């Protein structure tokens, strides 16, 4: 039987068609991932990273990491460093690290030639006047009174703009295309504006900065990018992209090709960098890498693995229509990977004291399997003693037949340990249970091979020995927003939908082996969920973040 051939997505089909028609040769394929360093990357960028670098792997083609750093007002070195860290963490390597700012001189030189050829001019109107003259989709624009400035005057003012001799906002440079075009982006778009602010790489060298549409296609051309993939909102920009590239290239030269794919929106969050920045600035989250944020750094800190994020991006694919992906799918990808890789440990988050009244040893150490999904994971020793913590919800004084945990007069197994039987409880003056007393069967030790150890009981509980327990701060994270699409309601501010219960901090108790855990180490707290050690953790105070619960609990809440 032949192996079923994987079907191509429409992006891969475009490339295959270009190769088949000879438009591009396989050895000329080159891709790029072009983030603007004005914020941290989020889960949407992860899909773009996976697409572009995945194509590089599929076609054995180089992929550049290019920073579209043309706006010094919003861009910072911190964001550059975070983007590089995220791409590397996801497991990808770029062929060349590039910056649009590398090409500022070339872009300027090309612009001067365009002015000389009558393809660009300096407009001295206000931004409001320029906007008013743009027209509407059904009404053509009107030409600027400065559109027919002489070449000499345009060159003189543009040079003054470059040198910082003109105030910000006094002039812009516009391409001279067609103010009656049905595509409003072709109505003499702005190519340069004056910004008197230091750039994170070029410092004070430039006082003018290119607009995205002018810099992006030319950067692709300079780097010989074969296929420039971007999201669907840039579809109307494709005509302008081609117009600009044609102005600086010759017909026989290698031409980059822009094509668009649809965004995949994630439920119960926002991915606008501006809105994510507001969440940080207004204190709804503590930072860009807050584990509730959809940023790659936030997901990493929460305990997501690179594999889980790549699998998520691969599973949702690329399409031509925008759609909403439920956050539960991302959580499923995390569970699926962590189930294979995360060591099993024991932690109790809502403890109640359990006393084994007939246990007469000081302590003993029991063998516990690290991961039943991984034969190479081995085992560890966990301490056992007379007094244990178990989860409060794992006990009821009396219960129906469907309750398979501990109750008076019935038996359960303690994980990796013994079978116990509930005998009595101790309560405080308010009637709250403070202790559960039980007896154990000393011959029922797990793995001992005795007949008693093989006895079947319906419930198994996790536990922690009190004398060995290590207190830990446990952060239980939930969805950041209470509704699926928080920024879809045009009548309300998306911040109104922030979930006030997106973080609960409790004190839990974990087995002593976790004192050796390192930052971002991931674990399955048995019967509870997946957790990782937070970066704020220390030897004096362990801090764990819940990545995801063991099962999807959100659907039940809904």
Written account of the structure:
- This protein has 558 residues and is of the alpha/beta class.
- It is built from 13 helices and 29 strands.
- The strands form 8 sheets. The protein has a 7-stranded mixed beta sheet with strand order 12-27-28-29-25-26-13, with helices on one face. It has a 7-stranded mixed beta sheet with strand order 23-20-21-22-14-17-24, with no helix packed on it. A 4-stranded antiparallel beta sheet has the order 4-5-6-7.
- A hairpin with a 4-residue loop joins strand 20 (411-414) and strand 21 (419-427).
- Helix 2 crosses helix 11 (306-316) and helix 11 (306-316) crosses helix 12.
- The longest helix is centred in the N-terminal third of the chain and has 16 residues, at 43-58.
- It is elongated.
- The relative contact order is 0.10.
- This is Glutamine--tRNA ligase.
- Residues 30-339 form the Glutamyl/glutaminyl-tRNA synthetase class Ib catalytic domain.
- It is an enzyme of class 6 (ligase).
- It comes from Mesonia aestuariivivens.
- Residues 342-441 form the Glutamyl/glutaminyl-tRNA synthetase class Ib anti-codon binding domain.
């Amino acid at each position: 039987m032949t192996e079923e051939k994987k079907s191509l997505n429409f992006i891969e089909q475009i490339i295959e068609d270009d190769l088949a028609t000879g438009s591009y040769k396989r050895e000329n394929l080159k891709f790029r991932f072009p983030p603007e360093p004005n914020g941290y990357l989020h889960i949407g960028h992860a899909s773009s990273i996976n697409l572009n670098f995945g194509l590089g792997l599929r076609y054995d083609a180089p992929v550049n990491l290019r920073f579209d750093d043309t706006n010094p007002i919003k861009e910072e070195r911190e964001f550059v460093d975070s983007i590089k860290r995220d791409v590397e963490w996801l497991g990808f390597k770029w062929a060349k690290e590039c910056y649009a700012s590398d090409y500022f001189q070339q872009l300027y030189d090309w612009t001067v030639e365009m002015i000389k050829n009558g393809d660009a001019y300096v407009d001295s109107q206000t931004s409001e006047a320029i906007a008013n003259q743009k027209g509407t989709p059904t009404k053509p624009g009107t030409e600027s009174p400065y559109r027919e400035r002489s070449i000499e005057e345009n060159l003189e003012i543009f040079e003054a703009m470059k040198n910082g001799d003109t105030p910000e906002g006094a002039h812009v440079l516009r391409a001279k295309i067609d103010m009656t075009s049905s595509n409003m982006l072709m109505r003499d778009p702005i190519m340069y504006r004056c910004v008197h602010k230091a750039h994170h790489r070029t410092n004070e060298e430039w006082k003018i900065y290119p607009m995205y549409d002018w810099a992006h296609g030319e950067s692709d051309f300079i780097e010989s990018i074969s296929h420039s993939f971007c999201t669907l909102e840039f579809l109307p920009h494709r005509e302008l992209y081609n117009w600009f590239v044609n102005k600086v290239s010759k017909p026989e030269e290698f031409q980059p090709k822009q094509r668009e794919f649809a965004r995949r929106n994630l439920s119960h969050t926002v991915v606008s960098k501006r809105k994510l920045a507001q969440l940080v600035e207004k204190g709804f989250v503590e930072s860009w890498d807050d584990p509730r944020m959809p940023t790659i750094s936030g997901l990493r800190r929460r305990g997501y693995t690179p594999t889980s994020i790549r699998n998520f991006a691969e599973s949702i694919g690329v399409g031509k229509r925008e759609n909403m992906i439920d956050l539960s799918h991302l959580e499923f990808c995390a569970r699926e990977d962590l189930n294979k890789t995360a060591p099993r440990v024991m932690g109790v988050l809502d403890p109640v004291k359990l006393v084994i009244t007939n246990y007469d040893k000081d302590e003993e150490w029991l063998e516990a399997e690290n991961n039943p999904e991984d034969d190479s994971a081995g085992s560890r020793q966990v301490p056992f003693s007379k007094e244990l913590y178990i989860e409060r919800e794992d006990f009821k004084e009396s219960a129906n037949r469907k309750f398979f945990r501990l109750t008076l007069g019935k038996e359960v197994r303690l994980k990796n340990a013994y079978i116990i039987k509930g005998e009595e409880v101790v309560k405080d003056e308010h009637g709250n249970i403070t202790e559960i007393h039980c007896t154990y069967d000393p011959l029922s030790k797990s793995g001992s091979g005795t007949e008693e150890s093989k006895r079947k009981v319906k419930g198994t509980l996790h536990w922690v020995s009190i004398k060995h327990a290590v207190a830990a701060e446990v952060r239980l994270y939930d969805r950041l927003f209470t509704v699926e699409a928080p920024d879809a309601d045009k009548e309300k501010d998306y911040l109104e939908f922030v979930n006030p219960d997106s973080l609960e901090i409790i004190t839990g108790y974990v087995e002593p082996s976790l004192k050796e855990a390192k930052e971002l180490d991931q674990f399955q707290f048995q019967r509870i969920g997946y957790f990782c050690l937070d970066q704020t953790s220390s030897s004096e105070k362990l801090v764990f973040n819940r990545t995801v619960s063991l099962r999807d609990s959100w659907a039940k809440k809904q």
